[in-house]
Structures are given as C-alpha cells and as structure tokens.
Amino acid sequence: MENFSFYSPTYFVFGKEAESQTGDMVKRFGGTKVLIHYGGGSVVRSGLLDRVKASLDAAGIAHIELGGVKPNPRSGLVYEGIDLCKKENVDFVLAIGGGSTIDSSKAIAAGVVYDGDFWDFYCGKRIEEALPVGTVLTIAAAGSEGSPDSVITREEDMMKRGASGDAIRPKFSILNPALTQTLPPYQSAAGITDIMAHLYERYLTNTTDVEVTDRLIEALLLTMKHEGPRVIADPDNYEARANIMWAGMMAHNNSCGVGRTQDWNSHNIEHELSALYDCAHGAGLAVTMPAVFKYVMDHNVMRFAQVAVRVWGCSMDFEHPEVTALEGINAFAAFLTSLGMPSNFEELGAKEADIPTLVENLCCGNGRDGSISGFVTLNKDDCARIYQMMV
Ligand code: NZQ
Ligand code: ZN
Q1: Lining residues, ligand 1, CB within 6 Å
Q2: What digits encode the pLDDT tens for the residues 231-262?
Q3: Do residues 131 and 92 touch, judged by C-beta distance below 8 A?
Q4: Is 282 exposed, middle or buried (0-12, 13-18, 19+ CB in 10 A)?
Q5: Average pLDDT of span 67-83
Q6: Cα angle 94-95-100, degrees, rounded to a multiple of 5
Q7: Mutational pocket test of ligand 1: of 65, 102, 151, 253, the residue with most ligand atoms within 8 Å of the beta carbon
Q8: Ligand 2 being an ion, which residues bring their Cβ within 5 A of it?
C-alpha cells in the first residue's frame, strides 16, 4: 500500500425527510445568506425546493435562487452564479439536485473568492479556497456529494474538464433516498453505472497488496449488482434506493481508493462523449468501459480475472485466466444492458465519423500532451482504436 492522507470532513444527514434539517445544517456551518442552485425543474415539480426554503426560513437564513443547471453543466451559468453571489453578498452555496448542480455550485463557490477566471481550476490549478458548499442530493450517481471534485463543460469549445480541492468538499450533504424515487429509469440506470465505474476505476490499480480496498470495492460492486435490478424493477423500493445512495457516496469519497494508483481512463474517454453529444455520463460509461477493459486487459489479466470470480461469479480458469477475465467483462456489460443502458455508439447517439475529433480533444485539448494515463498510458492511436471498438 502507498502512503496517503485522507481528509473527508463532510457531515452526512441520511434518511427520510432529512431535507427538513437543511436550515440547521447551513447555520451549523456558518451560512447567513445562501445561493440555492438547482437544475431544470425536477426539484420544483417534486416540491423539494419549497420544503428546503421552508427549512431555511425556519432557521432564519436569507436565500436567493439560481436554477437552470443542465446535465453536463456549462460554464455560462457558473459565471452568472459568481456575479450573482458577489452582487448579493452570498456566503454559502446550496446545491439541490444531482452531480451537475453540485458541480456547478462548487465551481461558483470557488470562483466567487478567486480574482482570476474560474476556468483556471479546470486547467489544473488546485482549488485552495471557496465559499462553503452544502448539498441536498436527488440522484445517486456522481458521488459529488462527498467528493472534492467538480466537472464543468466550457461552452465556447465544449471542453469538459475536472477541478479538485478539499475546499470544495461539501460541508454537509443531505441524503434522503426517497427523493430518488421520482427518477426516470434511464437516469437511475445511468447513476448505477457511474457508481460502478467509480469502483472499477479504483479497482484497476498498479499497486499490489491492497486487500482492504480491493475487498471494499468488491463489497460495493456486489451491492450494486444486487440492488440495481431491484430499483429498476420497483422504483419505489426505499431500501434498495437507500443502499444505492450510500454506496454511491462510498464509491467516490475515496475511502476505496486510498493507498493505490487509480485508473480514470474510462472517465476521460467518456467525458468527450458527454461533451460532444450531451449524453448522460453514466450512459456514456456503459459504452466506454467494456471497450477500455478489453483493450487494457492484458496489462494485468489477473486483476480482471479476480473481479470476474469475486463479483461476477465466474469460475477461475487457471490455465487460461484471460478467458475468465473476458467472461467477467462480458458479464458486467450484459448487466449494464439489462438495466437499459446503451452498448454502442449508435444507441448512445455517437458517430463513427467524429472519432478523430474525440481523440484530438481527449489527448490534446486543454494542454494535454498527446496521451492520457491511468492503469495504462493510452496514446492517440490507442484511444482511436478504443472508440472504434464502441461503434
Ligand atoms: O435538472 P433536473 O430537472 O433536476 O433533472 C435532472 C437531470 O435531467 C434529473 N434528476 C435528478 N434528480 C432527479 C431527477 N429527475 C427526477 N427526480 C429526481 N430526483 O436527472 C438528470 C441528470 O442529473 P445530473 O445532475 O446531470 O446527474 P448526475 O448526478 O449523474 O451528474 C452527472 C454529472 O456529474 C459529473 C458528470 O460528468 C456529469 O457532468 N461527474 C461529477 C463527479 C464529481 N463531481 O465528483 C464525478 C463523476 O465521475 C462525474 O464525472
Ligand atoms: Zn463518474
């Protein structure tokens, strides 16, 4: 295991009606004037926005609103939010929604206290300072409720990039699994896929003897394998929603990733798809992961064979471990398809003719040097071949 430091100070309030504690949580973390940030309207329709505002009012917290965050959140609304917070002397940003709303909130929070362009953080500058952020989560997926990360798309060139820093880890996150019961099945499935991707991206490591994190990841993957089909079959299954919601947080607050190298090639390859086609991030990952895994499998076939046996129930072929490894990848791909996820470019709405653009943006956009690295380093030719495998 490698040396690590781990700092994950988010306060979680989990369970039915937990959103009624939002006002108390903002107060606890020093907020006096809040920007409420939300998406395209699901929180208005469900009545959640009104319930949260009532909780803030009861706690005597002033608030203003900025809605309209799109999935794959854009830079334009971030600039608007930064200006609004400065003008209104906001001292706390409250996200009500999913990863997109949370990430847009984090970007605003970092941008308000920064003199330069907030996009600097999405070009590699670490976020050291930000307004405090809180979240009321409505979809189990991105894990942004417990992560120090934010992913934004710059509108002028549709460049989708991430920024990081402990300063944007949410001070608190309110997780009421019942809020996820209104999700369309496709979004539930995309969320499940993203959670499993966050686990796989950590499982694909070059560090040896990381038994504790391997076993944690396997436990969470087994949970998703059990609970995923249950929420697709019965969207109102509170217990299955609850297990998925906590697994989503555990998958990405890095409890399972400490002390080991991680991959993230699948995420980087996918981000170009959701940037260009505006598809759901999880749906893009469902198409991306099987192709990437097959392409890099030979780098450490036993890693793929291990997860195949321990999670997907495959029998170990000791003479031909590559057979077991491939069986595990195919079982994972079939699982994602069974949830309603796409399995190729056409089902995702992607075009083969765009592969050169995807590769160029991926490997060279925003200052990259012609390759991406993770479990293995992939150059432009590798990435082109991987996209081709998805057609
Ligand atoms: O905008 P509204 O109307 O709220 O509708 C949303 C949106 O259309 C809807 N939705 C959310 N909760 C709902 C609901 N509809 C009905 N009932 C509910 N309870 O679902 C749609 C998707 O929402 P979004 O926030 O985009 O989903 P998700 O949480 O999957 O976030 C995706 C974004 O997070 C980024 C992705 O790249 C993508 O941009 N990621 C962020 C990470 C992080 N910050 O740590 C890591 C991830 O790997 C990921 O890259
Ligand atoms: Zn993800």
Answers
A1: 39-43, 71-72, 97-101, 103, 138-139, 141-144, 147, 149-151, 179-180, 182-183, 187, 191, 194, 252, 267, 281-282
A2: 999 999 999 999 999 999 999 999 999 999 99
A3: yes
A4: buried
A5: 98
A6: 155
A7: 151
A8: 194
Nearest to 44 by CA among 89, 101, 84, 91: 101
User: Is domain 11-179 classified as CATH 3.40.50.1970?
Assistant: yes
Rounded to whole angstroms, how far apart are CA atoms 159 and 239? 38
Return the minimum-mean-pLDDT range out of 90-94, 157-161, 237-241, 373-377: 157-161
The structure tokens 């798309």 sit at 153
Up-side HSE of residue 87: CA atoms within 13 Å toward CB?
A: 7
Q: What CATH number is given for 183-389 in this structure?
A: 1.20.1090.10
pTM: 0.98
How many CB atoms sit inside 10 A of residue 185's CB? Answer: 13
Q: Tokens for 177, please give them.
A: 């699994």
Banded model confidence at residue 365, pLDDT cuts 50, 70, 90: confident
pLDDT tens string 19-70: 999 999 999 999 999 999 999 999 999 999 999 999 999 999 999 999 999 9
pLDDT of residue 366: 76
Say if residue 84 is exposed, middle or buried (CB neighbours under 10 Å; 0-12, 13-18, 19+): middle
Distances (CA, A) of 214 to 143, 206, 217, 257, 260: 19, 12, 5, 9, 10
CA dist 297 → 260, 325, 342, 373, 387 (Å):
18, 8, 22, 15, 16
In the three-class reduction of DSSP (H, G, I as helix; E, B as strand; rest coil), residue 244 is classed as helix
According to DSSP, the β-strands at 172-175 and 159-164 are unpaired
Please report the pLDDT score of residue 368 as a whole number.
Answer: 87
Under 8 Å between Cβ of 38 and 70: no
The two three-digit tokens of residue 173, written as one number: 């996150």
For the chain, domain boundaries: 11-179, 183-389
